[in-house]
Amino acid sequence: MAEKLADAHKDADASAARAELALEAEVDTDAIVRAAKAMRDVNETRAARDRTCLIVDDSRVIRKVAAKIALSLGYRVIEAEDGAEALARCEQAMPDLVLTDWQMPVMSGPEFVSELRKLPVSQAPTVVFCTSKGEAADIHVGIGAGADDYIVKPFDEAALSAKLERLGVERG
Length: 172
What we know:
- By secondary structure, the protein is an alpha/beta fold.
- The chain has six helices and five strands, in the order H-E-H-E-H-E-H-E-H-E-H.
- A five-stranded parallel beta sheet has the order 2-1-3-4-5, sandwiched between helices.
- The longest helix has 48 residues, at 2-49.
- The protein is elongated.
- The termini are far apart.
């Protein structure tokens, strides 16, 4: 009888140990799931913040000024000095935002935007002409080429930020 009682205690202890292990495994699984979700959320937030802006202008000074503005708006900046170089960069990795000049060597802004819009993409970038050409006819040509908006040089952070807000573009 004592032997049966001892076996019953062993079985009860084993069952309790299995139940405890199962509970720990469930708790561990829950903890792992929570940690994985937290990492996913951080990665999604980081990806949302890691938005890129391609600045296309043949003037190094203008690119640097525009880069400073884009950086202050939270974008990671990529630069190109003409439309052909910009198109090649877009084929490598499509930016979220493109700020492009109009008059450039090799390929003009309107030519670049027109070619950019022909590229097969899952998410088309927002394109803003940043140029001194501010006549109505020029604006029509730029928008007709595929730009989303137009800003006349010189511009500052507030002007570009307001323009992007009206376009519904999130900050980087």
